[in-house]
Amino acid sequence: MNFRLRVWRQENRETEGRLVEYEARDISPDTSFLEMLDIVNDELTERGELPIAFDSDCREGICGTCSLTINGEAHGPRHPGAACQVYMRDFRDGETITIEPFRVGSFPLVRDLVVDRSALDRIVQAGGFISARAGSAPEANSILVPKHNADRAMEAAACIGCGACAAACPNASAMLFTSAKISHLAFLPQGDPERTTRVLRMVRRMDAEGFGNCTNIYECEAVCPAEISASLIAKLNREYARASWRERFGE
Amino acid sequence: MIVAVTGVILVLFVIGHLLGNLQIFLGPGWINGYAQHLRDLGPLLWLVRIILIISVLLHICFTILLALENRRARPQPYVQRHYAKASYASRHMVVSGFVVLAFIVFHLLHFTGHRFDPHFPLLKNDPLNHYDVYSMMVYGFQNVYVSAFYIIGLFLLTLHLTHGTASFFQSLGLNDKNFTPRLASGARVFAWLVFAGYTSIPVAVLLGLVRPAQQL
Predict the structure, then answer these.
(1) Does some domain include residue B157?
(2) Average of pLDDT values for B22-50?
(3) Does A191 share its domain with A146?
(4) A223 vs B84: CB contact, 8 Å cut-off?
(5) I need a surface site. Which of A18, A160, B32, B151 has the fewest CB within 10 A?
(6) Are residues A95 and A180 in the same domain?
(7) Whether A215 and A132 share a structural domain
(8) Helix-helix angle B2-21:B43-72, to 10 degrees
(9) pTM, whole model, 2 decimals?
């Protein structure tokens, strides 16, 4: 298969970026999207040009490192799945494919298609953990977790922190990510002691990072490779309201 | 949060106002009497009006602030954009909101301020000495341009409500995974019922099904 690529090239944050056209020739339909970029990069390197910088790690959809906006959609046309799970058979032969980075003000551009998503790490550092004395594992049945809660916590914990939710959101809001991280612990007894402070600190950190506001458009859940449901954002709103009342009345 | 709460107040008004207006189909006695009752409320009517005006102002101010923050959150826009799910209504709430605002201003000047229509000052009170709201509505909607603007305004209100009425449940935390699709379709049905209810009046007037109670 042959493709015409329009790739965002930008040396760094300070310089202006632009779309540059490349040809990808004789690509097997079973090539993954990232492998196709590797092939194009090999050709660029042979010609003595700088290869296209892009993020990837596990390439099997579980690490959340890849971060491409393909034809205007975070992680490309195949949902649910990360960009590394997109194959060239998902496109038409001869198609023009536009590749841009995740465009979120809070994800500063590093180079070409690579952005710095450490804002998400800082949201987790603000409260997305439990304070427990590490040591030998406690007896498994000493803390009982209802099956329903365990399932809901597991669904929320599936978030791989790729940032596609914020990239796809017309408002560049990171509410889906934050709601997953908060819900995951709010459903479990282990998360209960810090339940109030966690949601307040994480939401305030999220706002301080400069993400936009959720207006319930739900584009986030459509592109989420881990199929996190936007109904967790309602859960976040409940948690935040509860925590705000408790804080207000000094509990 | 504030946008959602004020949104609920405004939706309740939209429902109440619709039920009031639909009394036009029950004849002049009903709607003229209803309008007189509203005016007889005196200070209570003004209380409701002030709550509504404050709700509208807060709703607009906070959405503008949010929209500006959202714009700042993505300084470099995408060159190409494709939406997998986002509805047209949900992405154009500010635009539809401003058209509805322009419509409300015109609507208040038109029917509450009695502007733009040469018939309104000529209307006499009905036999019970109530203001003849019935004939005022009929004469108002007999103007094709007025009716057309009303229907356009209501269409944008409907678009606004298809997203808005589902959205405030989510913002107030009253949603879960199973409720989301039902909420979305419920909001759509509600919004289009509002559209059908309100537009039935100008359509009935233009078709000559509802005629003025007094000739001018």
Answers:
(1) yes
(2) 93
(3) yes
(4) yes
(5) A18
(6) no
(7) yes
(8) 130
(9) 0.93
CA dist B37 and A56 (Å) reads 69
Its domain, for residue B39, covers: 2-72+90-206
For residues A158 and A175, give the distance between their C-alpha atoms in angstroms, rounded to a whole number.
Answer: 15
What is the count of structural domains for chain A? 2
Determine which of B1, B62, B65, B85 to mutate to test the interface with A (most A C-beta atoms within 10 Å): B85
Whether residue A159 contacts residue A226, with contact meaning beta carbons closer than 8 Å, is answered with: yes
Interface test with A, best of B167, B175, B178 (most A CBs within 10 A): B175
pLDDT tens readout for residues B134-174: 999 999 999 999 999 999 999 999 999 999 999 999 999 99
Tokens 């509002």, residue located = B194
Query: A220 with A149, same domain?
Result: yes
Buried/exposed B97-132: b ≥16 CB within 10 Å, e otherwise: bebbeebeebbeebbeeeeebebbeebeebeeebeb
Query: Is B77 a domain residue?
Result: no
Assess B207–A contact: CB distance below 8 Å, yes or no.
Answer: no
What is the token pair recorded at A250?
């000094």
3-state SS record for A89-138: HHCCCCCEEEEEECCCCCCCEEECCEECCHHHHHHHHCCCCCCCCCCCCC
